[in-house]
Design brief:
This protein is about 35% helix and about 20% strand. Helix 2 crosses helix 11 and helix 12 crosses helix 13.
């Protein structure tokens, strides 16, 4: 990727005047950026923080069909979600993976009447759902998935089989299985879309840490939060995709009308190898006592993900998992798995994000629509450009949403669509092996090019898909060394991120370019080792380096419930087995 400084230089030279300004570097803004690039239309994308650092980094890490949206009568949204899920499994197989889902039901006939009312859109409030209602929903869900079908249809799981495998609550009467998908790293997926866009359309540019802070003489003012420097750009059109921050962005360019009202969703990463074994690759998707949907599934051999909450909030920038939410999540897990015994000292990471929902008078947060819409604000005397604001938007349907939005604005640019993004591969999903033999061949190639053992090459392929070749080819002798306290990562891999992936801050790498913190590998030892690699690449002084480490340590402790205990790998500074 082009250096951030090069894009700043182009901005100062007026290269983006008259083009499309996209505000918001989350998945929806980047989706629009990618779609415009596919049409050969240059754009400037800006975000006040890093790419995918807000809501887009805080989902349940699922690419899902939205089964629960059937409950609120949003059938078109479910159809779109299922079809987009199927395409993402094909377009990004390195990051989007199938996962079986088990749905326990506490009764057979519960909620039949209410389900009928919701089906007829006479009621939106979520309610109890027995196995009959769930099977009806899954039958419709299966039908929606016929287009580009990638996974099996649903099936009932014999209750004896379910109880033998997982310690389900005695009240569970039936278990149904269907298939959905999980995304390994939503942050990396978003970054790969940025890179894809700039390969297709080099005249485009994406600037992180550049906030829209005002309007002056018909130009938008941007402030670089890393330097305090200000820039101006005179766009031909502004597309506001700032998620829960859309009202703030609109207000800064003279549009005071509030459109969004967010709800907070929090998640916990727990070190529970026993539950990993019990789940055996499946996700448990269960109804709570307050008729919400929660989930738990394994991330790897040690960690599980537990979520999520759904609370109205106005604290967008300060969103974090509260003590009350931890108690709620532990409580609902104990309800469905009485022998699970979750404890605070099992928490390795927590995170929270704010869903960008439309303003609504609905009493229950689950009744607020998860669909998206566009609002148009025509140019006026003080703002000589149109603004289109995206309200809402889901991770799974980002591509379809972006295509609809781009089709909405292309006529204003006197352009027409050249191609759809429907079948375009994403990043390292391009030419990704379709069978185990071809995958083994790719791993062997990466191992040979990088001079590393098969296990290390396998990890690179898992993270970067076919782009693992580039990472491997960049490894030198020093780059093949493992990170102290985080042996799953190589020195050269981190160096590659700092050099080629538009990194500005230390937490860009620890929280988004990698999954270090999410995987429970963030400790004082590993973070200091990482900082020593990154600092010379980014030109940091010793003072800057120490400040970045201290700030991140505080953020991990106070916002993500990371406790700095001795990591079992911390003493292993170099592992001979890594190098071929």
């Amino acid at each position: 990727m082009e250096k951030r400084s090069k894009i700043s230089d182009r901005l100062k030279a007026g290269a983006f005047d008259g083009t499309v300004l996209i505000v918001g570097g989350g998945i929806n803004g980047v989706g629009v950026y990618r779609d415009l690039a596919a049409q050969g239309v240059p754009a400037l994308l800006v975000d006040k923080s890093d790419f995918a650092s807000g809501t887009s980094s805080a989902p349940s890490r699922l690419i899902h069909g939205g089964l629960r949206y059937l409950e609120t009568g949003e059938f078109q949204l479910v159809r779109e979600s299922v079809e987009e899920r199927n395409r993402l499994l094909l377009n990004a197989p390195h990051l989007v993976k199938p996962i079986p889902v088990w749905v326990p039901a506490l009764s057979r006939f519960g909620g039949v009447m209410s389900a009928g009312l919701r089906f007829l859109r006479l009621k939106r409030t979520p309610g109890a759902k027995g196995s009959i209602v769930v099977r009806m929903g899954l039958a419709l869900f299966d039908r929606f998935g016929d287009k580009d079908r990638t996974m099996p249809r649903h099936r009932p799981v014999p209750i004896s089989e379910a109880r033998a495998r997982i310690g389900l609550a005695q009240g569970v009467q039936a278990v149904l299985e269907y298939w959905d998908a999980r995304i390994v790293s939503p942050e990396r997926y978003t970054l790969e879309l940025v890179e894809d866009a700039e390969i297709d359309c080099p005249a485009s540019g994406a600037l992180s840490y550049s906030a829209v802070t005002g309007l002056s003489n018909g130009s938008v003012t941007l402030t670089d939060s890393t330097t305090g420097e200000t820039f101006t750009v005179r766009p031909g059109l502004v597309v506001n995709c700032a998620g829960p921050w859309i009202d703030e962005v609109d207000a800064n360019i003279g549009i005071p009308e509030p459109l969004s009202e967010g709800t907070k969703g929090s998640h916990l990463v727990l070190e529970r190898p026993d539950l990993v074994r019990d789940l055996n690759g499946a996700m448990l998707y269960f109804e709570t006592h307050d008729h919400r949907a929660c989930l738990v599934y394994a991330l790897n051999e040690q960690m599980i993900l537990l979520g999520t909450t759904d609370l109205r909030t106005r604290e967008i920038d300060a969103a974090r998992c509260s003590e009350e939410e931890i108690e709620y999540l532990f409580g609902v897990l104990r309800d469905v798995l009485p022998r699970s015994h979750p404890e605070r000292d099992q928490i390795r990471y927590s995170y929270a994000g704010v869903r960008p929902l439309p303003r609504s008078d609905a009493g229950a947060t689950g009744a607020i629509s998860r669909d998206h819409s566009f609002r148009d604000f025509p140019a006026n005397q003080t703002r000589p450009f149109d603004v289109v604001t995206l309200v809402g938007g889901k991770w799974t349907t980002y591509r379809a949403c972006a295509e609809q939005l781009v089709d909405h604005i292309l006529p204003r640019l006197n352009k027409t669509r050249i191609r759809s993004t429907l079948t375009l591969p994403v990043g390292g999903g391009r030419d990704f092996p379709k069978d185990s033999a071809a995958r083994s061949s790719l791993v062997a190639e990466v191992a040979r090019d990088g001079g590393i053992k098969t296990a290390a090459a396998e990890r690179l392929v898992n993270r970067y898909g076919t782009r693992a070749r580039k990472v491997a080819q960049d490894l030198d002798e020093a780059g093949r060394v493992e990170i102290p306290g985080a042996r799953e990562y190589l020195v050269g891999e981190i160096r590659y991120m700092a050099r080629h992936e538009r990194v500005s801050r230390f937490h860009d790498i620890v929280l988004r370019r990698s999954l270090l913190a999410f995987e429970g590998l963030a400790s004082e030892t590993s973070l200091n080792a990482l900082a020593d690699i990154i600092a010379p690449e980014l030109g940091w002084t010793q003072t800057q380096r120490d400040a970045e480490v201290a700030e991140l340590l505080e953020q991990l402790r106070d916002r993500h419930h990371v406790s700095y205990v001795h990591n079992k790998n911390e003493a292993d500074i170099y592992d001979e087995a890594t190098v071929a």
